[in-house]
């Protein structure tokens, strides 16, 4: 068991206990326990294939879409068991939004991309209200000034970095409580990456953010808490400053200093 | 042996001679192969275009004659024709019965002999009196006056007027045309009539309407059932032995010879459910059975090719599975589904064999009004006419083929238009 730091301010937003994930017979996640707080960005780092993306996808039950995947353990969102039979998966995914590795805007207009979520959840009762939600979300995603004159153009015509911010705007538009980001910058150039990182900082106060990243500098820059995964297990979890400057585990130290990865 | 097959150490490898003779020859051969391939492709396209042009030219030159019809101006003195009809009766409900027993054919032949001399009745088509009958029915006041009606000329005269008959007939045509008694004009009645034993008065409308009804029934059944099956199999069904079996069965069904579907239709729809024989409804049901597997296969492939990232994106903002399917997957798959539907429907439109089995080869002389009325379809009509002895049917057959091809073209054009409208550029 990983000991939580005693100075944690409030009750955890998401609290995962003893989570195991299996793909068929193969165990991908082995007994992982993590807490995620609002106001803090939590980074999941580790070498390729260590299960950090798999773990991320258990938090909004996206793994349900993989027929052979099986999850056990206890994951609570505000104390509510998200794997309980009574849990509404559709609403869970609205409350826990997700940004994927490759920008995946819908092949629709920029406006429609952002408006889609609020529309299916009935979050706007009039056209003006929807317009406001779209504008607000695009502003929060730092994309409004670039696209405000061409909202009816296709979302797929934007550049890669703009597409990813559009996907973030799309996630924000549903007004989630948590945003999961699965290597959101791995397909982007350094400038676009910097913009997304700025954006993560700006969003931090409002949403609990969990980000999977390959890039340790990025984890160090954007996150307050870092979890290091290796071979499906959680090796170390703590304040980012501690993990990077004073790792307690040998494996963490080796990874951070670039001895493997 | 083992020495030569061994890869030499790095420093022993001779530097590649990029400008050597062997290398130049190899490059030249590669370019030659490239050109050869391009020429082969071009030749293939030219050959297929040639076949298509040959088909179209042959059909149009033969069929164009089928769209025109020679007509004779036949003056009839009705009061002297002894038709034993009175106007009052013709305006009442018993009109058809009265017309059926009246000696109209004899009166018409007599009028022809008076107008064109001895043997004048042979100049008229066997069905010419029907035109006279219809004229009387439409306007009973004809009975008390003289009138000149346009009636179809016989096949021999019609062919001669189109440069194809015997010398004697051609001379007769020149003579008639000189007197202004013979005109050749566009045959509108070809597009309003139905089958007949007389090639000069046959029409394609009956078969065309039958084809339309049949296609509507086929589309209404095969498209929704095919698309929904594909959606279920791709998006909802668990992947197990049962779904594998269903997939194999559907693929096999698409390859079953169409005549077998005809026998199935005969056994199930006619013998078990006692649906009306020869009807467009049964034809459509049978063709729907045949078309559905094609649509299922095309739709499954189209659905499969929708990138999973779009499904993830939609699920990620909290769309329910049905919203994912209807808001994202189906619109993106629609162009592919429509392409498959075009192929399936085009095949169904040209299908003859299964329809013979369910009685759609019957002689139907009135266009169907409902899908349960006896009907025939274009390809069956073409088959029936091509089997006729009378020479007049040759050009009618070609004309019917043109109508079928134009119908096919219109159907495909509509589908391509729809596909392009729904096409989403990535």
Walk me through this protein's architecture:
The complex is a heterodimer of chains A (261) and B (426). Chain A contains 10 helices and 10 strands. Chain A has helices at 52-58, 89-95, 110-120, 127-140, 144-147, 160-173, 190-203, 216-222, 240-245, 250-256; strands spanning 14-23, 26-36, 41-45, 69-77, 80-81, 96-99, 178-182, 208-212, 225-230, 233-239. In chain A, strand 7, helix 7 (190-203) and strand 8 (208-212) form a beta-alpha-beta unit. Chain A is globular. The two termini of chain A are 24 Å apart. Mean pLDDT of chain A is 89; it is low at 1-7. In chain B, helix 12 crosses helix 14 (321-349) and helix 14 runs antiparallel to helix 17. In chain B, strands 2-1-3 form a 3-stranded antiparallel beta sheet. Chain B folds into 2 domains: 65-186, no CATH class; 205-422, MetI-like fold (Orthogonal Bundle). At the A-B interface, helix 2, strand 6, helix 3 and helix 6 of A face helix 13 and helix 14 of B.
Secondary structure: elements and pairs:
The complex is a heterodimer of chains A (261) and B (426).
Chain A: E1 14-23, E2 26-36, E3 41-45, H1 52-58, E4 69-77, E5 80-81, H2 89-95, E6 96-99, H3 110-120, H4 127-140, H5 144-147, H6 160-173, E7 178-182, H7 190-203, E8 208-212, H8 216-222, E9 225-230, E10 233-239, H9 240-245, H10 250-256
Parallel strand pairs in A: 3-8, 3-9, 6-7, 7-8
Antiparallel strand pairs in A: 1-2, 1-4, 4-5, 9-10
Helix pairs in contact in A: 3-4, 3-6, 4-6, 6-7
Chain B: H1 2-5, H2 21-66, E1 68-77, H3 87-90, H4 95-101, H5 104-116, H6 128-138, E2 146-152, H7 155-161, H8 167-178, E3 182-186, H9 205-236, H10 241-255, H11 258-272, H12 280-304, H13 308-316, H14 321-349, H15 353-357, H16 378-386, H17 392-422
Antiparallel strand pairs in B: 1-2, 1-3
């Amino acid at each position: 068991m990983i000991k939580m730091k005693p100075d944690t301010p409030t009750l955890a937003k998401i609290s995962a206990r003893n989570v195991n994930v299996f793909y068929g017979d193969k165990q991908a996640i082995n007994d992982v326990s993590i807490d995620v707080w609002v106001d803090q960005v939590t980074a999941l780092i580790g070498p390729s294939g260590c299960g950090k993306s798999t773990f991320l996808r258990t938090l909004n039950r996206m793994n349900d879409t993989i027929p052979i995947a099986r999850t056990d353990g206890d994951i609570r969102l505000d104390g509510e068991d998200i794997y309980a039979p009574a849990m509404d998966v559709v609403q869970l995914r609205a409350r826990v939004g997700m940004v994927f590795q490759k920008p995946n805007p819908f092949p629709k207009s920029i406006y429609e991309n952002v408006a889609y979520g609020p529309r299916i959840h009935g979050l706007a009762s009039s056209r003006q209200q929807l317009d406001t939600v779209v504008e607000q979300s695009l502003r929060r995603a730092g994309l409004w000034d670039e696209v405000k004159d061409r909202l009816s153009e296709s979302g797929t015509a934007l550049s890669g970095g703009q597409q990813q911010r559009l996907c973030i705007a799309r996630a924000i538009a549903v007004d989630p409580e948590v945003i999961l980001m699965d290597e959101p910058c791995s397909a982007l150039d350094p400038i676009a990456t910097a913009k997304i990182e700025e954006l993560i900082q700006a969003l931090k106060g409002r949403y609990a953010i969990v980000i999977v990243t390959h890039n340790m500098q990025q984890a160090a820059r954007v996150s307050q808490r870092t979890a290091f995964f290796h071979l499906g297990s959680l090796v170390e979890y703590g304040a980012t400053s501690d993990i990077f400057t004073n790792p307690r585990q040998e494996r963490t130290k080796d990874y951070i200093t670039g001895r493997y990865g | 042996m083992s020495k030569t097959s061994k890869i030499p150490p790095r420093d022993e490898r001779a530097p590649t001679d990029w400008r050597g003779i062997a290398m130049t020859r190899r490059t030249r051969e590669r370019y030659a192969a490239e050109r050869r391939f391009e020429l082969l492709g071009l030749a293939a396209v030219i050959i297929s275009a040639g076949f298509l042009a040959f088909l179209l030219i042959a059909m149009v030159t033969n069929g164009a004659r089928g769209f025109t019809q020679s007509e004779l101006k036949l003056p009839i003195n009705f009061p002297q024709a002894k038709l034993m009809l009175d106007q009052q009766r013709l305006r009442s409900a018993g009109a058809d019965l009265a017309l059926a027993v009246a000696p109209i054919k004899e009166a018409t032949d007599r009028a022809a002999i008076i107008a064109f001399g001895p043997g004048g009745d042979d100049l008229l088509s066997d069905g010419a009196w029907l035109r006279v009958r219809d004229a009387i029915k439409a306007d009973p006041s004809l009975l008390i006056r003289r009138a000149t009606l346009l009636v179809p000329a016989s096949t021999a005269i019609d062919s001669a007027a189109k440069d194809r008959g015997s010398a004697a007939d051609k001379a007769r045509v020149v003579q008639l045309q000189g007197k202004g008694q013979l005109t050749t004009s566009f045959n509108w009645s070809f597009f309003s009539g139905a089958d007949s034993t007389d090639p000069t008065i046959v029409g394609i409308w009956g078969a065309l309407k039958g084809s339309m009804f049949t296609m509507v029934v086929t589309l209404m059944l095969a498209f929704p059932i095919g698309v929904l099956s594909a959606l279920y199999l791709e998006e909802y069904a668990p992947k197990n032995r049962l779904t594998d079996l269903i997939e194999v069965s559907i693929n096999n069904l698409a390859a079953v010879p169409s005549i077998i579907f005809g026998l199935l239709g005969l056994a199930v729809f006619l013998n078990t459910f006692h649906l009306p024989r020869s009807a467009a409804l049964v034809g459509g049901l049978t063709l729907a059975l045949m078309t559905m597997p094609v649509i299922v296969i095309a739709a499954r492939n189209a659905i499969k090719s929708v990138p999973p990232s779009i499904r993830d994106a939609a699920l990620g903002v909290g769309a329910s599975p049905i919203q994912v399917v209807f808001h994202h997957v189906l619109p993106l798959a629609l162009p592919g589904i429509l392409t498959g539907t075009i192929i399936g429907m085009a095949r169904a439109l040209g299908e003859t064999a299964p329809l013979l089995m369910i009685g759609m080869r019957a002689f139907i002389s009135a266009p169907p009004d409902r899908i349960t009325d006896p009907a025939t379809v274009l390809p069956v009509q073409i088959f029936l006419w091509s089997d006729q002895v009378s020479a007049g049917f040759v050009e009618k057959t070609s004309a019917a083929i043109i109508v079928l091809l134009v119908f096919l073209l219109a159907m495909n054009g509509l589908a391509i238009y729809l596909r392009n409208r729904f096409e989403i550029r990535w």
